[in-house]
Amino acid sequence: MGVEEKLPPGVLLTTVEGVAGYFRKASFWPATFGLACCAIEMMTSGAPRYDLGRFGMEVFRASPRQADLMIVAGRVSQKMAPVLRQIYDQMVGPKWVLAMGVCASSGGMFNNYAIVQGVDHIVPVDMYLPGCPPRPEMLIDAILKLHDQVQHTKLGANRAAEIVEVETEALNALPTSEMKGLLRG
Fold it and tell me: What is the DSSP string of 107-134?
């Protein structure tokens, strides 16, 4: 016989992390950072047909001080990289970054000196969205996956321990150059 059975109907038990995660995931305020053709798909996802407003993202913020999600849509040039970093630094914390499209994720077909070969060289990326350009449905799916990631983010000392654990795991990971021919399952 647990505590749950002694409570009156309509009473829920949860943790502060659970409640905070639920409210954070339901109130993303994205910053507009459309750089190329992916930006058209990002704008389409906010239109009535796809309606990002269903997920609490009605307005794309023009000011980074009002945003907590940066969707980098398109290729990032070397000239734009410092601007991207400045906008990221001005965003309120906690903040998340979604790299939309193959150009933002890895430089895409533009393998030259003028294009940054992946936005993760400038800002930490939480979610990568492949495609050239990715469809609005794919962007919505990536945002929902980011919602799940944000909802289960720990707080306080638990978050600090989680960050140390993730960084240690990343440092101990097998380099990709040594992964040739390995099957993962």
Answer: -TT--STTB-S-GGGTS--SEEE-SSSP
Distance CA 103, CA 107 (A): 4
Cβ neighbour number for residue 185 with a 10 Å cutoff: 2
> Tens digit of pLDDT for each residue in 83-137?
999 999 998 888 889 999 998 988 888 888 888 888 888 888 989 999 888 999 9
In a 10 Å sphere around its CB, with 0-12 CB exposed, 13-18 middle and 19+ buried, how is residue 54 labelled? exposed
CA 43, CA 35: separation in Å to the nearest integer? 12
Amino acid at 159: R
Residue with tokens 């021919």: 181
What burial class does residue 73 get, using C-beta atoms within 10 Å of its C-beta: 0-12 exposed, 13-18 middle, 19+ buried? buried
DSSP string, 8-51: PTT-----HHHHHHHHHHTT--EEEEE-STHHHHHHHHTSTTT-
Q: In what order do the strands lie in the sheet with 127-129?
A: 30-34, 69-73, 96-100, 127-129
pTM of the model: 0.79
